[in-house]
Amino acid sequence: MSIFNRQTLAAFLLGTTLTVGLGAYAVERHMGGHGPAMAAGDHMERMLKHLYVEVDATDAQKAKIEPLVKAAMDDLKPMHEQLFQIHKQVTSLLAAPTINRAELEKTRASGIALADKASIRVVKLLADIGDNLTPAQRQKLAERLNHMHERRHHGG
Fold first, then answer.
1. Which of 79, 98, 139, 156 to pair with 123, CA 20 to 30 A apart?
2. In 3D, which of 11, 16, 6 has the Cα closest to residue 85?
3. If pLDDT is split at 50, 70 and 90, which confidence band does 41 have?
4. What is the pLDDT of residues 133-150, one digit of tens each?
5. Alpha helices in 56-100, H assignment, sequence order
6. Measured between alpha carbons, how far is 128 from 115 in angstroms, rounded to an integer?
7. Residue 62 CB coordination number (10 Å)
8. Phi, psi angles (nearest 5°) of residue 78
9. Each residue of 94-115: pLDDT tens digit?
10. Average pLDDT in the 50-77 region?
11. What is the pLDDT of residue 50?
């Protein structure tokens, strides 16, 4: 029995679509772009200011955290384009006259590997930020992240 079934395909397509959509929004908002996204650098600074207020960061901590975030965004931006290409490949394969399951599986595996790579980079960023915070500040940050997660997933 193949591990590649309709549910796997649906989950992959949904996950890829959400990742590409959120990634596009994040990259545009944080790294620059056209139109309203031109203030992406300003948006990143506002996000960091919120973080700093939430955890009561010192000037020394701010000076260490900002380059960490910028470096992570530089690392993640190319992954966004790769995810976009994977999404295009999946939709192209699905639109073909016949379904090439081997190519779909290969593309799925590429998407999972890329998502894993991005996840590793995000966790590294969180750890790097955490290294520059006190235990009390990390607790505040964790509480804030939990609150944001609950609002996003429970409509709060």
1. 156
2. 16
3. low
4. 999 999 998 888 888 778
5. 59-95
6. 20
7. 14
8. -65, -30
9. 999 999 999 999 999 999 999 9
10. 91
11. 86
Do 128 and 31 meet the contact criterion of CB atoms below 8 Å apart? Answer: no
Residue 127 carries which side chain, given as an amino acid letter?
A: A
Is there a contact between 73 and 30 (Cβ–Cβ < 8 Å)?
A: yes
CA-to-CA distance for 150 and 84, rounded, in angstroms?
Answer: 28
Report the C-alpha gap between 127 and 139 in whole angstroms: 13
One-letter amino acid at 62 equals K
d(CA 6, CA 12): 10
Pair 133, 61: CB distance under 8 Å? yes
Residue 51's pLDDT band (cuts 50, 70, 90) = confident
Distance CA(17)–CA(50), nearest Å, equals 28
Return phi, psi of residue 111, to 5°.
-65, -40
- Assess contact for 130 and 140: CB atoms under 8 A: no
- Nearest-angstrom CA–CA distance, 139 and 130: 10
Contact predicate 44/69, CB 8 Å: yes
Would the pLDDT of 47 be above 90?
no
